[in-house]
Design a protein that fits this description.
The protein is of the alpha/beta class. 34% of the residues lie in helices and 15% in strands. The strands form two sheets. A five-stranded parallel β-sheet has the order 2-1-3-4-5, sandwiched between helices. Strands 6-7 form a two-stranded antiparallel ribbon. It is globular. The structure holds flavin mononucleotide. Flavin mononucleotide (FMN) binds next to helix 1 and strand 4. Flavin mononucleotide binds next to helix 1 and strand 4.
């Protein structure tokens, strides 16, 4: 396998850990592997002479709109090898087939797709012990998948027709998320009593949706895609985890790993 350029997004660290484990495995096997954050990358700049990796979390059965934008904006290729990995709490369906279709149409050669269960970062946050067990199992699968890619044994299966329905359901969900009403309903904005204006949320937001005017508190600009970075990493827990049972939050790594 040629050198790997791995483009990834991670909201709360699960995908980051999986991508890092895969890159370490490539490197141990003598394959150069570089990690690039999707939010800082221009798809037009990718090196088509390298093998391309895509890594991201599942959101609403597929993935975040800005990740879709990146995938859809990949340049046309002449059989550049490409693989994907996603992390999820348990259910997806609207991703493996649809991404395959896009990259095939662009002229890439899909060499593998793998979905890896990691701890949930939303709704029911599990206790530390359960999270650690899931991470251990997930990283084992990541290592095995990286080796399968190297040995040419990985597969990128076509989804059966039903999965198209899941994809379109997911797209509707993502569009609803974007609406003003849903942004207002789940307005992730800091509690002024707790916020110390440290700017962590602003620096972490992958789509620059948080702004802080001189002397004021951070403000959510209503384009949130709910990756939960700001909620999960706020050192003062000032942004309420409105999605999560008992307001518990989750993150797999320290904020600095994602900056
Ligand atoms: C808004 C949102 C939607 C999610 N939707 C799904 C889903 O449809 N299916 C699923 O299995 N997990 C879902 N998850 C859980 C994440 O995919 C999972 O915890 C993932 O490993 C997080 O990766 P990250 O830490 O790299 O962001 C969702 C999480 C969020 C924040």
């Amino acid at each position: 396998m040629k050198d790997v350029d791995f483009y990834y997004f991670s909201g709360t660290g699960n995908t980051y850990l999986v991508v890092k484990k895969m890159c370490e495995t490539f490197q141990k096997c003598g394959i150069e592997a570089n990690m690039f954050k999707i939010e800082d990358s221009n798809p037009e700049d990718i090196d088509l002479e390298h093998t391309i990796g895509l890594g991201f979390p599942i959101a609403e059965l597929s993935t975040y709109e800005f990740v879709w934008d990146f995938i859809k904006a990949l340049p046309e290729a002449d059989q550049t090898k490409i693989f994907m990995v996603d992390t999820l709490a348990g259910i997806s369906g609207g991703i493996v087939g649809p991404v395959r279709k896009i990259i095939k149409e662009k002229g890439y050669e899909p060499i593998g797709a793998c979905e890896i269960v990691m701890p949930p970062n939303v709704f029911f946050i599990q206790d530390k012990e359960d999270n650690e067990k899931k991470i251990k199992k997930g990283l084992k699968k990541a290592k095995k998948y990286a080796k399968a890619l190297i040995n040419g044994k990985a597969k990128w299966k076509k989804d059966p027709g039903l999965y198209k329905a899941i994809y379109y359901t997911s797209m509707i969900g993502l569009k609803i998320t974007e609406t003003h009403l849903s942004q207002k309903m789940v307005h992730l904005t800091p509690d002024k009593e707790k916020c110390n204006k440290c700017r962590t949320c602003i620096e972490l937001c992958p789509i620059n949706n948080i702004e802080m005017k001189e002397g004021e508190y951070p403000e959510n600009l209503m384009h949130c895609q709910y990756c939960l970075r700001c909620v999960s990493f706020c050192p003062k827990k000032a942004i309420p985890a409105k999605f999560n049972y008992k307001n518990k939050t989750y993150h797999a790594v320290k904020a600095k790993e994602l900056l």
